[in-house]
User: What shape does this take?
Amino acid sequence: MNRFARTLMVCGAALTVTACGTVSNLLPFSLGRSPDAGAVASEGERLSVLEFDQALAPSPALAGRDFFLPGPQAVVSWPAPGGNAENAVEHAIAGADFTIAWRRDIGAGSARTRQIMAQPVAENGRIFVMDGEATVSAVDAQTGAVAWRASVKPEGREGGGFGGGVALGGGKVFVSSGYRTMTAFDQATGAMLWQTPVDVPIHGAPTVAGTKVYVVDIDNQIIAFDTQTGEIEWSYRGIVEPARIMRASSPAVTGETVIAPMSSGEVFALRASTGQPVWQQELSRSTRTSALSDIRDIAGRPVVSRGFVYAVSHAGVLASMDVRSGQPRWQVPVASVNAPLPVGDVVYVVSKLGELTVVNRESGQVYWTRDLNEGRVRQEGGFFGFFDRTVRPTWSGPLLASNRLVLTNSDGELVALNPKTGEVTATLRLGAPAFVAPSAYNGALLVVTDRGELISIR
Assistant: This one.
């Protein structure tokens, strides 16, 4: 019996070690894994993208050096999820008092079969936001009063409408949805102007530029619709990639170029008039033969700023690329599901592990990195102390607003940081998890929570 018991104990310990490694590999966002030491970009140098789990470290050349940030500007229109067609808003006047002005229920919150993913958009005194079941609300920006509501959910349909978003242009509200439709409503009345069915659900949020509205569906097909009629003018299909992060990314448009993010980890540049490809880049440090846990999705919006495209993938590449040729200026090993924020001399990005990193815009060198989850990581679940899972809050943002870097998180907080140092300066409890990045409009920060609540913060 003693020999049998000892054998069981040894086998059990071996299985436990094996299981722990397996669980660590299966957990989302690389939870439970220990980062390895990594390389640091130096001026004029491109980092190798063939190594895995690299850790960023500050560049000695930037130690003690300050960087320029522009002053805040009034935001009188936020027509696209990223603020404008280029997804580039550097510094907004918003949320100066950092207090809640009002809250408004917008409909269905997140649940097992649905998720609030649409970032609020706003203009002409109204905020437009979509709930977890594709119901759009037009809300008075000052009072929170609801002017109208309209739904694109088919009659009698239960679930299945995951994804989509809202954008504004030409007096219309454009709504993409997982219900396989692209719809336009009148901004003033909520009357449906047109609705165009598509073959597969639309995961991404729309972007409006000129006479077209652009969106990417779940099969990595970018579609251009005519804003007046809803007719499909052209489409271009990338590589189908079923593994993706459930966030509503949206294209960037600058001049005659559309920059489309794909779940395959690729960025495509297409001609806005014809859909003809101009260039493409793959932002991935993994291969197509690697495990499914290495999701390659570019879940954050690409940003066009000062002639360069900034984009980051879940597979671990943050890149600055020439908007005309796609040629990378630099690449650094950061894995993220959020849009990067180029502002002034730097680029801010939050990694999937909750690390805020500040990168020099010109060279890709790192100023500093701050762990936003310091003191927030906890153990949950388990059975009598065994098989606990490590839980790290998920972060959305950042946005630079009234000299604060603001982010939301899955712990139900809006957190403000010093943009020069990363020090936390204020925390506001929202009452529910917030997986959608904040927007800015007429001096207010706009946040949507998982509960289905729109919050205006002055």
